Amino acid sequence: MVDVSNSKGGTVLVSIQPVSSDLLPPQPNIEEGWDIVAEDGGAQTDEPTTPRAERKEIQDKEKEDHYGFIVRPGDDQLHYDATDDAKKVREREQKWLKMITNWKDWSDNKSTRLKERCRKGIPDSLRGRAWMLLSGANELMEQNAGVFEELVSREDNDVVIHVIDKDLARTFPSHVLFAEKGSQGQRDLRLVLKAYAFYNEKTGYCQAMAPVAATLLMHMPANQAFWCLVQICEQYLPGYYSPGLHAFQIDALILKDLLAKQLPVVAQFLDSKLPPTNPNEVHKGLDPVLYCTEWFMSIFSRSLPWRSVLRVWDMFFFEGVKVLFKVALAIMSLSFSKPKQREECPGFFEVTQKLRNLPLSVTHEGILLPEILRFPIHNQELKKFHFQQADVHFSEERARIMEMQARRSQARKSFSTLSEATSEGPD
Amino acid sequence: MARATDKKYDHLFQLLLCGDSSVGKTCLISRFADNEFRHTHINTIGIDFKLKLFTIRDKKIRMQIWDTAGQERYETLTAQYYRKAQGIILVYDITREETFRNVTKWLRNIEDHGVKGVKIILIGNKVDLESERKISTRHGQKLANQHNIKFFETSAWKDINVTEAFTELAEQILAKVESGGGRDRGSSSIRESAIKLHEQQPTPATKSHGGCCSGGSSN
Q1: What global pTM score does this model have?
Q2: Candidates B12, B36, B45; nearest CB to A293
Q3: For residues B169 and B155, what is the distance between their CA atoms, to the nearest angstrom?
Q4: What is the DSSP string of A201-235?
Q5: Following DSSP, what letter does each residue of A267-294 receive, concatenated?
Q6: Mutual orientation of helices A246-262 and A322-336 as an angle, nearest 10°?
Q7: Of chain B residues 8-47, which have a CB less than 8 A from chain A?
Q8: Judged by CB atoms within 8 Å, which residues 90-129 of B form the interface with A?
Q9: Which residue ranges are recorded for the region named Disordered (chain B) (predicted)?
Q10: Quick one: which of A259, A266, A338, A328 has its CA closest to A293?
Q11: Which end of chain B is more exposed for a tag (fewer CB within 10 A), N or C?
């Protein structure tokens, strides 16, 4: 009854970012002296000079990885070999199968163990089902039978659907599901995003939803992906995708507070790296929006190697928004804790570029995941920071924030996160 | 290779690209900064930037080019970067009417959030899709004239006019800097006094665009 065909272990290649399918040969450069931008481009610098015949050969070498990404040679920092121990995978599958069949008991009574198992990673073959259960989307879908079908049958809202259509080809274009124009994956993505835009007309469609929905579609059919997206947008990250992006903006500021508290040296270092033109401007340090917008809004789906993305999502579905902060702190810690690492980034440009092109020495699941667990974040603390930031920056919206907190807390309750690592009750 | 922080340049210019979603902002920057074009690419979430070193009239210019997400709701994140920009490239897609209609809206945004006297140019992108063209060159030019700004039609894919457009904007900023445009915040004097940029932006109610181009001087 459960398809385990794609979890046999074995060597897999992992990709995180779309790769260009068609680079034109380089044109003669204009009269500038030297080109800084190429400096950290490492992985693809050889490509434009490759002769046509050779390029054809490289294209022939493209292959689909374990997760459906089309992998091309040369992206060392984006793909890595990983071998799963087949025996371990099988054992984990057995455990998860048992949990899934006794879900209520597990979510009601054994949430600490459930959390631990999410942290260890959900087996690939059961991930979609586990995400549905962890998020509460399963229940929601059962209670709302026929709603998704009704939403997608509605006549397109031109304004919204137009933006969605433009993004279909720009969402994981290197994944087999979404690579082809008009493919099943693109059609499903369109349906899910359209349905959500009708489901919550106030929020409508936000561009960062596309990679989130696409990640879900890699694991489940469209109607399930829709209800999972609903839970993410309404319960896990309420207000993130709304027209003002208020909740995200508050969280970006909270990240700054958490950095200052948990990694003071790194925080100080980051704040000394200002955009070079504004030395006298009244500033509050490096704007977290510059690096964490894509991280948070796409739940890291565009910023990490795929195996790390999945591990982060496994944790996220159990522990909620705090995982975003933990991952961000782990990245910062791994990137800038050593004096040498800080010396390598003398300026604003190097810092932001490093954070936008994270090396495997930071993002590899074997390195990143243990680091994530080093940063306990107390719900109470998160709440306190939330109100502080709301007071300072969005005081007029306090009422809304409180509502958001209430919803998050409600979400935690219903997703069985009663027992936190910090042994606090849900806030 | 030169490090980005080496002070081997005469001027540092901050440019920003804005315009509707999917008009080709990121592709224009990639073409200009890296001389590359990708047929498969991803949408911009939030804000990004690239650096480009560039020489005009023997002056080495270090350009910091900010790329913004086109969807309206991201304006709340990108607004503060308008304030830092000395030059803004407003892009529409010649094959999509609504992106042209929205140019006026984007100009209003620039007025609301940008520095007074910021240099602006208008770009109609995707001229490689001539058969799908909806906005004539004449229309684009007319709109640019109305607002006293320079106009280019470009193709990031075919590399048509991209360098020319960026060069023109850089020339305008350089001219302003060299003529000692100290009065205009956002010019070369940013090194001394950028402090009050955000306090002195024009009120949203202002209607005139006269300040956009400093009397239309192009270089």
Answers
A1: 0.80
A2: B45
A3: 17
A4: TTT---TTHHHHHHHHHTTS-HHHHHHHHHHIIII
A5: HHHHHT---TT-TTS---SS-THHHHHH
A6: 50
A7: 12, 14, 21-22, 33-43, 45-47
A8: 98
A9: 178-219
A10: A328
A11: N
- In chain B, what is the greatest distance between 2 CA atoms, to the nearest angstrom? 49
Instruction: Please report the domains of chain A, with CATH numbers, ordered by start residue.
Output: 87-92+112-236 (1.10.8.270), 246-383 (1.10.472.80)
- Give the pLDDT confidence of A385-422 residue by residue, as tens digits: 776 766 655 544 455 555 555 555 555 444 444 334 33
Exposure string for B17-46, b = 16+ CB within 10 A, e = fewer: bbbbbbbbbbbbbbbbbbbbbbebbbbbbb
Q: Could you tell me the two tokens for A381? A: 């603390």
Can you list the positions of beta strands (E) in B138-195? 150-153
B218 found inside a domain: no
Q: Is residue B205 part of a domain?
A: yes
Angle at the Cα of A237 (from A120 to A425), degrees rounded to 5?
A: 65
Closest partner residue to A281 among B3, B62, B197, by Cβ? Answer: B197
Tokens of A374: 């080093």
- Counting every residue written for chain B, the total comes to 219
Beta-carbon neighbour count of residue B160 at 10 Å? 18
Separation of alpha carbons A204 and A226, rounded Å: 14
**How many Cα atoms occupy the beta-carbon half-sphere of A209 within 13 Å?**
36
CB contact under 8 A, A244 and B73: yes
Subunit contact B195:A280, Cβ cutoff 8 A: yes
First CA to last CA distance, chain B = 31
**Total domain count, chain B:** 1
Distance from CA of A165 to the nearest CA of B (A): 10
For residue B108, tell me if it sits in a domain: yes
User: Could you identify the residue written with the tokens 């606090």?
Assistant: A424
ipTM: 0.79
Angle between helix axes A158-168 and A209-217 (nearest 10 degrees) is 60
pLDDT, one tens digit per residue, over A108-166 is 888 899 999 999 999 999 999 999 999 999 999 999 999 999 999 999 988 899 999 99
CATH number of the domain where residue B152 is located: 3.40.50.300
**Structural domain contains residue B219:** no
Token pair of A11 as six digits: 């060597």
Look up the domain containing B147 and give its range: 8-210
- Hey, is the C-beta of B5 within 8 angstroms of any chain A C-beta? yes
